[in-house]
Amino acid sequence: MSLIRLNDVSVRFEKVAVLREAFFKLEAGDRVGLIGKNGSGKSTLLKLVLDQVAPDTGTVSVELGTRIGYFSQFSELNGAATIQEVLAELFVHVQAIEAELADIDGAIAAGPPVDELDRLIHRQSELFADMDRLDGWDYQRSIDTVLTTLGFNDAHRICAIDELSGGWRNRAALAKILLEAPDVLLLDEPTNYLDVAGVEWLEGWFKNFRGAAVIVSHDRTFLDAVVTASWRWRTSTCTNTRATSPTT
Which of 93, 11, 104, 85 lies closest to 52 in space, CA to CA? Predict the structure, then answer.
């Protein structure tokens, strides 16, 4: 079953055809790069998936329960929280497990009766398994790695997001989406605000990402490094050719 499917979709803006009879499907594990001129409908496809744009004709379907993360070149976080606090909130379930494990350690150290000790050890084993499954032991390091590689210094990490420039808030939004690790990533020009080291890190991050992705980018070197197929969108006709490997 396709995670995302567009079937015979057409979209017009102010009588101008942006998409015409477009067909597209995304399977689990696919990483598709969308290439083409500005105005050819690449970003519109992403907005159709997000239900931000309605098709004039045709259908758009997303598999029930699919978690989607979206980043655009205009994505910006805002608020009084720091980026460090925002990213830590993504792991509240892991922090709850850590707190319960700390309580169990204290209870075991107090020397409970044998029956209670057995219960505590059994529960501790369950929580250890949960942490392994969630890869929760190193979440602090994961946060630090993504922030360091995207260029956040100590000052950036402790000031309110509202105090960051638009470019840094974009980077913060990208960091949040990557750590959320959704089933499908929709990325619109994700490398625009990244330096060479940041782009290289993002390429490496994709090597371990098990979800699907649709990436709009003019950076062909980046696309060649991360996608499994490329679709070329030509003006409003949306003729596209799928490859088994990135197009050149």
Answer: 11
First-last CA distance in the chain: 29
Q: Is residue 73 part of a domain?
A: no
pTM: 0.76
**In this predicted structure, what is the pLDDT of residue 233?**
58
Compute CA distances 40 → 14, 30, 45, 128, 246, whole Å: 15, 22, 10, 50, 19
CA pair distance 54, 65, nearest whole angstrom: 20
Does 28 map to a domain? yes
Domain co-membership, 57 together with 100: no
Residue type, 119: R
Decide if 166 is inside a domain.
no
pLDDT in tens, 94-133: 999 999 999 999 999 999 999 999 999 999 999 999 999 8
Domain encompassing residue 99:
90-134
Tell me how many domains the chain contains: 2
Our CA dihedral for 100, 105, 108, 110, rounded to 10 degrees, sits at -110
Closest-CA residue to 87 (of 23, 21, 16, 158)? 158
Q: Is residue 170 part of a domain?
A: no
Give the single-character DSSP code of 182: -
Q: Residues in the chain with pLDDT < 50? A: 235-248
